[in-house]
Write a structure and sequence with these properties.
This protein has about 180 residues and is α+β, with helices and mostly antiparallel strands. The protein is built from six helices and eight strands; from the N terminus they run ββαααββαβαβαββ. The longest helix has 18 residues.
Amino acid sequence: MSRSIPTINTHRLTLRGMRAEDFNRFAEIWATPEVVQYIDGTPWPRSKAWAAFLRHAGHWQITGFGQWAIMRHRAPEMSGQVGFFFAKRDLGEDFDDVPEAGWVLSPDAHGQGYGIEAVSAAHDWFDRVVTGRLVCLIDPRNTRSIKIAEEMGYKVLREATVDGGAVTLYERNSPPQ
């Protein structure tokens, strides 16, 4: 089965499928301590980044949705990723059986509004094409991501532990009004 990955353009960004030539930048982003500090705390080796990179490509083929590369207009390399996936984290049916939203930006893209712009564009697409409930998990210290989640209409579902660390699970039953 072959599915095309849609391209989404905003005023300052293009969300597009990841390409083979994006891998080095993808691996560089995930090897950055500032990027992973609220995710798992350990910079990723290239082998872990490669497995995730391939998982993102395959997710589109199996589910019809996935992660996009975030491209700033006139920038040569990806600045992060945004989109949806099934992580199957063993956190319960109220979480594992629902598409999970996720977003990551490289540090050079922080503080410029790119995060909310990318997340909004991805959610607009989801609300038109896939529809339904969404979940996400965020480290309670990650105030930037919490702000984005709240702006997108996510509400606290419950607290949980993932890989020994405390996280807050969020749910979004419908777009914000």
